C-alpha cells in the first residue's frame, strides 16, 4: 500500500471541511458583530467577502475529499483486480454460465467496493475527529456551548448504541429480504421459457406480485426500527441547536436561572450557534453512507471466495519429456461426470485421442492442467501427481482458441517465451506458415494486433498458436484439435509442421482428424 | 419512457404526497429553527445591551418555546417522511417489478430476456429506480425550503428576497446545465468501459488453457489494465462532477449569506434571521440537486427497462385449454417432407449444432418462427399463428431442465392450474421420479434449491418430463430425455412413456441420440437433421 497520508487524504479533506465551516461561522459572526458596532460598509463588504471565501474553501475541500476518496478506492480496486482476475482468466472452459457469473462478480463486485472506500471509510475517520474540532472551536466562542455539544454526544452515543444494534440487525434483514426478492425475480425471468411454454404467466405473475408486496410490507416494519437511529441523529442535531440558542439568548439577556459562567458578546453567540449544526453533520454524512458499507462488505465476502488462496508453493518443473499416466480418471462437473479414463503415454512418445464430441477428450487435457475437477482416479507425471508438478508455464499448448494481447505480431508470438530474440520469433513464424501473410501485409512481424487478433483469418490465428508451441520448445505438448474447422490444405500443412517438430517430446493430441492422428506414435479412441 | 414509473406511482400518489408534506414540514422547521435562533440571540444581545429594563421587556417566552417546538417538529417530521417515502417507494417498486414481469412475458423472444447478463442488469436498473423513488419527496422539500427562505428574507427587504430568488433559480439552473456536461458522458463512459471489460474477460477466458499453459495471465492482466484504466478514469470523473455540482450549493450558500448581509435594510435581528434562513433554503435544495445529478443514471436505467419490457401489448390471451386444434404437424425443409398426425411419434437425430434443439423450441413457441422455418400446424405456417396458439399445442421438456426456485409441487404446478396431488404423483410415477421424491424428507414440499441445484441432473430432467406430462397438451416435445440417466432408469422411463403416450393418445416429437428413445417412436419414424451451419 502507499503511504498512510495518501490513505488518510480523503478523511483529512473532510476534517478540513469542518475547519472551513469554522471559518464560515467566524466570518458571519464577525460581519454581524461589525454591523452591531455600526462599522462602515467597508467592514461589511470585507466580512461578506470572507464569508464567500470560506464557502469557496469549503466547496474545494469537499471536491478534494471526493477526489482523494476515489483515488483511495481505485487503489483498493486495483489490488483486488490483481488478486481476482488471474483466477477468472484461467476459469474452467466449457462452463459458460458460471463464467458469465464469475466475470460479472469479478467486475461488478469490485466496483461495489468503491463507495465503501471512497465515502464510508473516510467519513468514518472524519466522524471521530471533526465533531471534536468543532466543539473545541466552539469553546473559543463559549465554553458552555462547547460543553453542551459534547454533553449531547453522551445520550446520543447511548441512543445510537441501543438503536444501532437493532437498526443494524433490521437493516441486514431488510437487505436480505430484498436480495431474496431480487433472487425470486431473477429466477422467474430466467425460467421464462418454461413459464411461457406452459402458459403459466398469470399464475406466476400473481405469485410474484403478492411476494413483492409482502416483502415490501415486511421491509417497512423493519425500516421503522432502522429509521430510529437516523431519528436519533436528527433529534440531537436539533437539540444541540436549540440548547445552544436558548443558552446564548438567556446569557445575552442576563436572565439565566443560574449564575452566568461567562459573559457572551453577540459575535461569540452567533459563532457557536452556526457551529451547532456542524457538530452533528459528520455523523449525518456517515449515516447517509451506511448503505455503501453494507454493499462493500457483501462484495468483499464474494471476492474472498473468488480470489485464489495464497500463491502455491514452488513445484518441481518437468525436465525432459515426461511419462504421463491417467489412472481411472473421472472428471466430475457436478451435473455430469465423464470417465473413467485410463491411458499411458511413455516419455517421448505421442498419443492421439479420438472419439465423438462430448466424450471428454478436451476435458482430459484440461484436467492435466488443473482446469477440470477430478472426481476420481489420478493423473501421474513421471510418477508424481500432476497437481504437484509445475506444468503451467512449462508446456506447449495449441487449441482452437488463441489468446491475443494488443501489440505486434512478434509480441504475440513471443508471449510463449518472453526472452526469445527476434531471429527466433521470425524463424518460428515462418515455420508455422505465417510467411505468406507477413509478406502480404508488408509490415513484417511489426503487424499491429488488437486483443481479438482482428484482421487475422481463422487459419492464421491457429498458425500464431502453432508458432507459440514451436517457440516454447517445451518437452510436453498438449494439442486440442489444432486443425479443427480448417480447410484441408491448411490442416495437412499444420499436421506436417507438427509431425517433424514433435519428435522426441511427449505429445497428447486431441483430434477428430485422421490425418493429424497419423502423426502420433499411438492412437486411441475414447468412448 | 416514464410510463412504467408513472403507472407504478399511481396508487401510491397519496403516500408520496404525505411524504412530500412531511419533508416540507421538516425542511420548514429546520430553516425556521436556525433562523429563529439567530434572531433570538441577536435580539437578546441588543436587548441585553439596552440594560436591565430592555432585557426584561424582551419577550423571550414565545421564541424559546418556538425553538423547542421546532426541534421536535423537525425530528418527527423527518422520521415520518422517511417512513412514508420508503413505504411509497417500496410499494411502487413492487408494482414496477410485477408490471415489468407482465410486460416481459409478452416479449416475442423470451430466450433473449432470460439470458443471465440481461437479468442481472435488470435488477441493477430496478435498484436505480428505487434510488429515484426514495428521492421523490426532495422536490416538495426544496420548494418548501425556498418558500420559507424567501418569506423570511422578505422581512429583511424585498431586495434580499429577490437576490435569494435569483440565487435559488441560478443553482437549479446550474444543476440542470452541469449535469449533462459533467455527468452524462462520464456515466455512459462508465457503462461502456464496464461492458467492454466484461466482454474482454469472457473472450480471454475462452482461451484459458493457453493462458495457463504459457502463464499469460500477467501479460493479459496488462492488456485488461487498459480497459480498467478507462473505467478508473470515468468513475472519478462522475464522482468529481457530482462533487462540483454539490460544491455549487456550498458556494451558493456562502454567497446567499453575504448577499443578505449587504442588501438587508432591516434591523440586525431580522438581518441575521434572513441570513440563516437563506443558508437553510439553499441547503434544502441539496436533495433535489442530488436527484437531478443521479437522473443521468436513472434515465439510462429506465430506457433500458422500457426497451427490455417492450411496448405495452394487449393482455396475454388465455390459451384455449379445452380443445387445442393442432392435429397435424408438417415439416417441409431441407428436402424433407413429413407429416405427422395427432397421436403419432417422430424422432429427430443429428450432429450437435444441426438445429435439433432450436427446432423443438420453435415448435414450443418459445423461439420465434421464421418465415421460412418450413413448419406448419394444421396446414397453417407456424410464423402466421399467434404464439399462444402454438404454445397451447405443445408441452416441452427442454434439454437443460429449467426449474423454478421453489418446491417440487411449485415446479409441477406450473404446468396447469388446478392440479391435485394425485395427478402430480401419477406424473412422477410415469417419469420414474416418484420413488426419489418419496424418499425426500418433505416429499412434494421439498425445496429444490436455486434453479433446482439440490437435485441431481437426472432428477431435474425427470421432474421436467413429469411437468410436461401434466400440461395435458396434444403433443409432447422431449429434448434428450435420457441425459443424466443410467441405462436401467432410461429403459424404464422409455417403457413408461410408451404406455402413457398410448393411453392418452398424445403425440410426441423426441430429440435423442440414444437408440432406446429412437426405438420408442418406431422404425423409420426418425429424421436425421443435416448440419445447417
From TrEMBL, chain A:
SMART domains: AAA. Keywords: ATP-binding, Membrane, Nucleotide-binding, Transmembrane, Transmembrane helix. GO terms for molecular function: ABC-type transporter activity; ATP binding; ATP hydrolysis activity; ATPase-coupled lipid transmembrane transporter activity. The keyword Membrane applies. This is ATP-binding cassette subfamily C protein CydD. The lineage of its organism: Bacteria, Pseudomonadati, Pseudomonadota, Alphaproteobacteria, Sphingomonadales. It is found in: Cell membrane. Residues 9-292 form the ABC transmembrane type-1 domain. The keyword Transmembrane helix applies. GO terms for cellular component: plasma membrane. The chain crosses the membrane at residues 12-33, 39-57, 126-148, 235-258. One of its GO terms (biological process) is cysteine transport. It is a multi-pass membrane protein. InterPro entries: AAA+_ATPase (IPR003593), ABC1_TM_dom (IPR011527), ABC1_TM_sf (IPR036640), ABC_transporter-like_ATP-bd (IPR003439), ABC_transporter-like_CS (IPR017871), ABC_transptr_CydD (IPR014216), P-loop_NTPase (IPR027417), Type_1_exporter (IPR039421). Residues 324-527 form the ABC transporter domain. It comes from Hephaestia caeni.
UniProtKB/TrEMBL annotation, chain B:
GO terms for cellular component: plasma membrane. Residues 316-529 form the ABC transporter domain. It is a multi-pass membrane protein. SMART domains: AAA. Its main location: membrane. Residues 18-294 form the ABC transmembrane type-1 domain. InterPro entries: AAA+_ATPase (IPR003593), ABC1_TM_dom (IPR011527), ABC1_TM_sf (IPR036640), ABC_transporter-like_ATP-bd (IPR003439), ABC_transporter-like_CS (IPR017871), P-loop_NTPase (IPR027417), Type_1_exporter (IPR039421). The chain crosses the membrane at residues 21-41, 53-73, 138-156, 162-184, 243-264, 270-289. It comes from Hephaestia caeni. This is ATP-binding cassette subfamily C protein CydC. One of its GO terms (molecular function) is ATPase-coupled lipid transmembrane transporter activity. Keywords: ATP-binding, Membrane, Nucleotide-binding, Transmembrane, Transmembrane helix. The keyword Cytoplasm does not apply.
Amino acid at each position: 500500500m502507499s503511504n498512510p497520508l495518501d490513505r488518510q487524504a480523503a478523511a483529512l479533506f473532510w476534517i478540513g471541511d469542518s475547519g472551513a465551516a469554522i471559518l464560515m461561522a467566524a466570518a458571519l459572526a464577525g460581519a454581524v458583530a461589525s454591523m452591531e458596532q455600526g462599522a462602515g460598509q467597508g467592514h461589511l463588504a470585507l466580512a461578506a467577502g470572507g464569508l464567500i471565501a470560506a464557502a469557496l474553501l469549503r466547496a474545494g475541500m469537499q471536491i478534494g475529499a471526493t477526489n482523494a476518496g476515489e483515488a483511495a478506492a481505485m487503489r483498493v480496486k486495483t489490488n483486488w483486480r490483481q488478486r481476482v482476475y488471474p483466477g477468472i482468466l484461467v476459469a474452467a472452459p466449457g462452463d459458460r454460465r458460471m463464467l458469465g457469473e464469475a466475470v460479472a462478480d469479478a467486475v461488478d463486485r469490485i466496483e461495489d467496493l468503491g463507495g465503501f472506500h471512497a465515502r464510508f471509510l473516510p467519513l468514518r475517520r472524519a466522524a471521530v475527529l471533526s465533531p471534536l474540532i468543532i466543539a473545541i472551536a466552539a469553546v473559543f466562542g463559549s465554553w458552555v456551548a462547547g460543553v453542551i455539544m459534547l454533553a449531547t454526544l453522551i445520550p446520543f452515543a447511548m441512543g445510537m448504541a441501543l438503536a444501532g444494534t437493532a437498526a443494524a440487525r433490521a437493516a441486514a434483514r431488510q437487505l436480505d429480504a430484498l436480495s431474496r426478492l431480487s433472487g425470486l425475480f431473477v429466477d422467474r425471468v430466467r425460467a421464462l421459457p418454461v413459464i411461457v411454454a406452459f402458459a403459466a404467466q398469470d399464475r406466476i405473475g400473481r405469485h410474484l406480485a403478492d411476494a413483492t408486496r409482502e416483502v415490501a410490507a415486511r421491509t417497512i416494519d423493519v425500516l421503522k426500527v432502522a429509521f430510529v437511529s437516523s431519528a436519533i441523529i436528527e433529534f440531537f442535531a436539533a437539540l444541540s441547536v436549540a440548547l445552544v440558542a436558548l443558552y446564548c439568548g438567556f446569557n445575552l439577556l442576563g436572565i439565566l436561572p443560574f449564575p452566568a459562567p461567562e459573559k457572551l458578546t453577540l459575535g461569540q453567540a452567533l459563532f457557536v450557534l452556526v457551529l451547532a449544526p456542524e457538530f452533528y453533520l459528520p455523523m449525518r454524512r456517515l449515516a447517509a453512507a451506511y448503505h455503501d458499507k453494507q454493499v462493500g462488505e457483501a462484495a468483499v465476502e464474494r471476492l474472498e471466495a473468488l480470489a485464489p488462496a495464497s500463491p502455491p508453493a514452488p513445484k518441481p518443473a518437468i525436465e525432459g519429456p515426461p511419462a504421463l499416466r491417467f489412472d481411472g480418471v473421472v472428471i466430475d462437473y457436478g451435473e455430469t461426470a465423464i470417465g473413467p479414463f485410463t491411458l499411458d503415454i511413455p516419455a517421448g512418445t505421442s498419443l492421439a485421442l479420438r472419439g465423438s464430441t462430448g466424450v471428454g477428450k478436451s476435458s482430459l487435457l484440461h484436467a492435466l492442467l488443473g482446469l477440470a475437477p477430478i472426481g476420481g482416479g489420478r493423473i501421474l507425471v513421471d510418477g508424481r501427481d500432476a497437481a504437484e508438478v509445475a506444468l503451467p508455464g512449462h508446456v506447449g499448448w495449441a487449441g482452437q482458441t488463441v489468446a491475443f494481447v494488443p501489440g505486434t505480431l512478434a509480441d504475440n508470438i513471443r508471449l510463449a517465451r518472453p526472452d526469445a530474440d527476434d531471429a527466433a520469433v521470425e524463424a518460428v513464424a515462418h515455420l508455422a506458415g505465417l510467411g505468406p501473410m507477413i509478406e502480404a501485409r508488408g509490415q513484417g512481424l511489426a503487424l499491429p494486433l488488437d486483443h481479438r487478433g482482428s484482421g487475422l483469418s481463422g487459419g492464421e490465428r491457429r498458425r500464431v498458436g502453432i508458432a507459440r508451441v514451436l517457440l516454447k520448445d517445451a518437452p510436453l505438448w498438449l494439442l486440442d484439435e489444432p486443425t479443427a474447422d480448417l480447410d484441408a490444405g491448411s490442416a495437412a500443412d499444420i499436421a506436417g509442421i507438427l509431425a517433424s517438430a514433435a519428435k522426441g517430446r511427449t505429445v497428447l493430441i486431441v483430434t477428430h482428424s485422421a490425418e493429424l492422428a497419423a502423426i502420433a506414435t499411438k492412437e486411441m479412441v475414447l468412448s | 419512457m416514464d410510463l412504467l414509473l408513472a403507472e407504478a406511482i399511481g396508487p401510491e400518489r397519496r403516500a408520496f404526497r404525505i411524504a412530500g408534506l412531511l419533508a416540507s414540514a421538516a425542511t420548514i422547521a429546520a430553516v425556521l429553527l436556525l433562523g429563529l435562533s439567530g434572531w433570538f440571540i441577536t435580539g437578546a444581545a441588543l436587548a441585553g445591551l439596552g440594560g436591565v429594563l430592555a432585557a426584561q421587556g424582551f419577550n423571550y417566552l414565545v421564541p424559546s418555546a418556538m425553538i423547542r417546538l421546532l426541534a421536535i417538529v423537525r425530528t418527527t417530521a423527518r422520521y415520518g417522511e422517511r417512513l412514508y417515502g420508503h413505504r411509497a417507494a417500496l410499494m411502487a417498486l413492487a408494482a414496477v417489478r410485477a408490471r415489468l414481469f407482465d410486460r416481459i412475458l409478452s416479449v416475442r423472444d423470451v430466450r433473449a430476456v432470460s439470458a443471465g447478463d440481461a437479468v442481472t442488469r435488470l435488477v441493477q436498473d430496478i435498484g436505480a429506480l428505487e434510488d429515484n423513488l426514495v428521492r421523490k419527496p426532495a422536490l416538495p422539500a426544496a420548494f418548501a425550503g425556498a418558500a420559507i427562505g424567501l418569506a423570511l428574507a422578505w422581512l429583511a427587504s424585498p431586495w434580499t428576497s429577490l437576490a435569494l430568488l435569483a440565487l435559488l433559480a441560478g443553482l437549479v439552473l446550474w444543476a440542470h446545465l452541469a449535469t449533462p456536461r459533467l455527468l452524462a458522458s462520464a456515466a455512459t463512459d462508465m457503462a461502456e468501459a464496464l461492458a467492454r471489460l466484461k466482454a474482454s474477460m469472457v473472450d480471454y477466458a475462452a482461451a484459458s488453457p493457453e493462458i495457463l499453459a504459457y502463464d499469460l495471465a500477467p501479460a493479459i492482466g496488462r492488456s485488461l489494465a487498459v480497459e480498467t484504466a478507462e473505467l478508473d478514469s470515468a468513475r472519478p470523473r462522475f464522482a468529481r462532477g457530482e462533487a462540483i455540482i454539490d460544491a455549487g450549493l456550498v458556494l451558493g450558500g456562502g454567497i446567499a449569506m453575504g448577499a443578505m448581509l449587504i442588501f438587508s435594510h432591516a434591523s440586525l435581528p431580522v438581518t441575521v434571521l434572513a441570513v440563516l434562513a437563506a443558508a437553510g433554503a439553499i441547503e434544502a435544495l441539496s436533495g433535489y440537486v442530488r436527484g437531478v445529478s443521479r437522473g443521468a443514471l436513472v434515465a439510462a436505467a429506465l430506457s433500458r427497462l422500457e426497451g427490455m419490457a417492450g411496448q405495452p401489448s394487449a393482455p396475454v390471451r388465455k390459451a384455449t385449454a379445452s380443445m387445442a386444434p393442432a392435429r397435424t404437424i408438417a415439416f417441409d425443409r431441407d428436402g424433407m417432407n413429413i407429416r405427422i398426425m395427432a397421436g403419432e411419434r417422430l424422432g429427430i437425430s443429428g450432429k450437435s449444432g444441426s438445429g435439433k434443439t432450436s427446432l423443438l423450441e420453435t415448435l414450443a413457441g418459445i423461439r420465434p418462427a421464421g418465415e421460412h422455418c418450413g413448419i406448419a400446424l394444421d396446414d397453417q405456417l407456424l410464423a402466421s399463428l399467434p404464439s399462444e396458439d402454438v404454445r397451447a399445442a405443445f408441452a416441452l421438456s427442454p434439454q437443460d431442465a429449467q426449474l423454478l426456485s421453489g418446491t417440487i409441487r411449485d415446479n409441477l404446478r406450473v404446468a396447469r392450474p388446478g392440479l391435485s396431488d394425485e395427478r402430480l404423483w401419477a406424473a412422477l410415477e410415469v417419469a420414474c421420479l416418484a420413488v426419489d421424491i418419496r424418499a425426500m424428507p418433505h416429499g412434494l414440499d421439498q425445496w429444490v434449491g436455486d434453479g433446482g441445484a439440490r437435485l441431481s441432473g437426472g432428477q431435474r430432467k425427470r421432474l421436467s418430463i413429469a411437468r410436461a406430462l401434466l400440461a395435458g397438451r396434444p403433443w409432447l416435445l422431449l429434448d434428450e430425455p435420457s441425459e443424466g440417466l443410467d441405462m436401467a432408469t432410461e429403459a424404464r422411463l422409455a417403457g413408461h412413456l410408451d404406455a402413457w403416450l398410448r393411453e392418452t393418445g398424445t403425440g410426441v416429437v423426441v430429440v435423442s441420440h440414444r437408440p432406446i428413445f429412437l426405438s420408442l417412436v418406431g422404425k423409420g419414424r426418425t429424421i436425421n437433421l443435416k448440419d445447417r451451419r
